[in-house]
Design a protein that fits this description.
The chain is an alpha/beta fold and about 350 residues long. About 40% of the residues lie in helices and about 15% in strands. It binds nicotinamide-adenine-dinucleotide and uridine-5'-diphosphate (UDP). The site of nicotinamide-adenine-dinucleotide has 27 residues, from helix 2, helix 6 and strand 5.
Length: about 350
């Protein structure tokens, strides 16, 4: 290989597992903008290729993104894709309760075997690796807001356990790979994040309530709606992930990434009604088993170590998300009319 060839291949390469999902697609876009060659790997169980459409369009993406359909529970060798990775992101796992509970055994396998396969790949490639962990590792928290030092209160047997315990065990695998093999790991505990590119049938609260509001359909409130969450706009989250990846190798996390502004589900619904001008009414549905009562991140560690905090206020983020869903609804209605 001559010097020019070598230079051509010297661009930084990122592998994003779960790259066609909601967060994964935003991250791929950011990595391409930052000059990476990106491989997006996804089984497409909840992800969609349309999320990556503009990056897969050669004219715009300039061949900077390749898509590989693959289930991370199956071993793989990145060399078989004629590629290498300098940086690996593990986002592969359905995040919405209805989707991860639909195939709970596969969810657990995805968390464990996916993490193991990606850690082995990072080890072989000498790559830095990111784990998308979750606020769910805190379960039904007994302290508030949640700090990273809090060890959580998680059911091992309930319907959320496949995800919560899977993610807890994945964190353990990451730290053992660092201790045993010296792999450079970065673990973020992500709190509820929302934005464009969520599926309209994703099942999570922000997408459900926005789509229902735009259709003037009843908006589903589970339980009394007094349970709280803290919602982070996706651009803020992606900035946090990139900041984390740039920290010195001695900083591994786990670090909370989320918006510390806590709201009840009812307050969220009221904001969405106000912002959409919807005529929807609220309907009560049973609260799902083990639904956490309160959740809010303490982000002091992220502020101190990453110099990061969310910038997008909830109303602004909701406006952008509503505008995106409104466009999807308009194209859907146009297709129905044709
Ligand atoms: P998502 O469901 O939109 O994306 C997950 C992606 O992973 C999808 O594209 C899906 O097809 C893919 N996937 C699932 N199982 C796979 C498998 N076995 N092999 C290959 N691909 C597989 O969810 P998201 O919101 O984009 O979440 C991305 C990651 O971030 C997940 O790991 C999730 O646990 C984590 N996370 C997200 C949030 C949030 O609020 N969005 C909060 C905490 C953690
Ligand atoms: N929720 C709701 N209506 C919906 C979907 C969800 O009231 O249509 C509630 C759900 O019970 C939970 C909160 O909203 O208390 C957040 O749910 P989501 O599935 O978005 O995320 P998670 O429970 O994983 O934090």
């Amino acid at each position: 290989m001559d010097g020019v060839e070598r230079n051509k291949h010297a661009r930084r390469r990122a592998l994003v597992a779960g790259g066609a999902g909601f967060l994964g697609a935003h991250l791929c876009r950011r990595l391409v903008e930052d000059g990476y060659d990106v491989i997006a790997m996804d089984s497409l169980v909840t992800g969609r290729l349309s999320n990556l459409a503009e990056l897969l369009d050669d004219a715009i993406g300039e061949h900077r993104l390749r898509f590989v359909r693959h289930d991370v529970t199956e071993p793989f060798d990145i060399a078989s894709f004629d590629a290498r990775a300098d940086i690996v992101f593990n986002l592969a796992c359905c995040a919405s309760p209805i989707h991860y509970q639909a195939q709970p055994v596969h969810t657990l396998k995805t968390c464990l075997e996916g993490a193991l396969n990606l850690l082995q790949l990072a080890h072989r490639n000498g790559a830095r690796i990111f784990q998308a962990s979750t606020s769910e590792v805190y379960g039904e928290p007994e302290t508030h807001p949640q700090k990273e030092a809090y060890r959580g209160a998680v059911s091992t047997t309930g319907p959320r356990a496949c995800y919560d315990e899977g993610k807890r065990c994945a964190e353990t695998l990451f730290f053992d790979y660092r201790r045993q093999h010296g792999v450079q790991i970065k673990v973020a505990r992500i709190f509820n994040t929302y934005g464009p590119f969520m599926r309209e049938d994703d099942g999570r609260v922000v997408s459900n309530l926005i789509v229902q509001a735009l259709r003037d359909e009843p908006m589903t409130i589970y339980g009394e709606g007094l349970q709280t969450r803290s919602f982070c706009y996706v651009d803020d989250l992606v900035n946090g992930i990139m900041r984390l990846m740039d920290t010195p190798s001695t900083f591994t996390g786990p670090v909370n990434l989320g918006n510390p502004v806590e709201v009840t589900v009812l307050e969220l619904a009221e904001r969405i009604i106000a912002l959409t001008g919807s005529r929807s009414r609220l309907v009560r549905k049973p609260i799902p088993t083990d639904d956490p009562t309160r959740r809010c991140p303490d982000i002091s560690l992220a502020r101190a170590q990453l110099g990061w905090e969310p910038r997008v206020a909830l109303d602004d983020g909701l406006r952008r998300t509503i505008a995106w869903f409104a466009m999807q609804e308009a194209s859907r209605n146009a297709r129905v009319r044709e």
